[in-house]
Amino acid sequence: MLAAEEPRAPPVTVIRGVFGAGKSYLLAVVVLLFVRLFEQSDTAAVGNVQPWKLLISSSTNVAVDRVLLGLLSLGFEKFVRVGSIRKIAKPILPYSLHAGSENENEQLKELQALMKEDLTPAERVCVRRSIEQHKLGTTRTLLREVRVVGVTCAACWLPCMNGLTFPVVVLDECSQMTEPTSLLPIARFECEKLILVGDPKQLPPTIQGSEAAHENGLEQTLFDRLCLMGHEPVPLRTQYRCHPAISAIANDLFYGGDLRDGVSEVERGPLVPWLPTLCFYNVTGQEQIERDNSFHNVAEASFTLKLIQSLIASGIAGSMIGVITLYKSQMYKLCRSLSAADFSHPDLKTVQVSTVDAFQGAEKEIIILSCVRTRHVGFIDSETRVNVALTRGRRHLLIVGNLACLRRNGLWGRVIQHCEGREDGLQHASQCEPQLNCFLKDYFEKQAEEKQKKKNEKEKSHSQKDTV
């Protein structure tokens, strides 16, 4: 792409970005820059030269879609997303080539089945557009023509990708991928220029298997290896997500004071006056172990449910609330509690509940973190896991846990110190529950009044008709 006399750029670029640094948005901008360079290069090329193409890949569908959503926000639509219908973000579906089944009719049926699900109006529009595109059958041809393609590492071997080459490969969340996974798109598509993005301070690859896999270095990522080989990472130290009081915990515990805040306390003000920015709620429950060695805590689940209901009763949209737990058993317990709750509000369904691993890369205005453990801390003192859990909230971080147990741990003891340094930063569940009960009482009374008002209006309408 460059003139012969100009020095060649290094074939590898490593970008190390902290949470909320805008890594995905940066990648979207970098992709647009490459597209412009490709167009200039192809214009200047002589003869029948194959057009330059760029691949966006990662180990998760969420990470791939996040970069593509960034491209859409910048007005760029000339890309194709290859993957399974159910795993692709709804706004990306109209630009996708569905690879779950080679049967075109089966794919169309799957898209039509999506229309029958509980979708938002915006999601419904996206699915309808995807159905129209599928009927036209042009996406498979576009895959050969567009310069940008998004696909997970695991889907690189799909038949529709045969014969394609991508001189430029972008790997997002590379510090969370095993080295063999990272090598799949590099080896498959004749990569000449590689861009890797990640944060070694966040979750490492998930490796299931024997201890030998760990002992023989499978935990080492390509990101780590390239840094050890002397590739100096480009640092992104400014976070634009969290309230400074929340980011200060991660800065103190994990980043050695190198973190910078790109947002102020005013920009991340409270959503409701009564809700603290940072708070540890002490719940004196008991952990319980399941057959699969996962833990749950009924008292924490109960308090978390009441907290969610109070937030929604105060006018906060459920989509602004995220609940993170460190154990799958607690996640299932919370999901069942939300489903069975005697609280008829549609926003309750939009509250996201998941484990730490599933929340990496995501963010919410309010994060409620359920710690579960009451006897021993267990694996929840993993620095990378705690770092992710603490840095998902933009305005509020509400930690629900057992004070006596967690305070004994060095890592969690420092987290609690940060909470204690804030006004109302340490509260006992038993003391703040009366306030939450008042919010719920007021909400239910208003609901009853509105219901009675509608009933009276209906009866009045019927009475007037009978008189006539």
UniProtKB/TrEMBL annotation:
Cell compartments where the protein resides: Nucleus
Reactions mediated catalytically: ATP + H2O = ADP + phosphate + H(+)
One term of GO molecular function: transcription termination site sequence-specific DNA binding
Enzyme nomenclature, EC number: 5.6.2.3
GO CC terms of this entry: nuclear body
Pfam family, one: AAA_12
GO BP annotations, alphabetical order: DNA repair; termination of RNA polymerase II transcription
InterPro entries, sorted: DNA2/NAM7-like (IPR045055), DNA2/NAM7-like_C (IPR041679), DNA2/NAM7_AAA_11 (IPR041677), P-loop_NTPase (IPR027417), SF1_C_Upf1 (IPR047187)
Main location: nucleus
DNA2/NAM7 helicase helicase domain residues: 116-208
Subunit-structure text: Interacts with DNA repair protein RAD51; the interaction promotes RAD51 strand exchange activity. Also interacts with DNA repair proteins EXO1 and BRCA1; the interactions are increased following DNA damage induction.
Protein name: 5'-3' DNA helicase ZGRF1
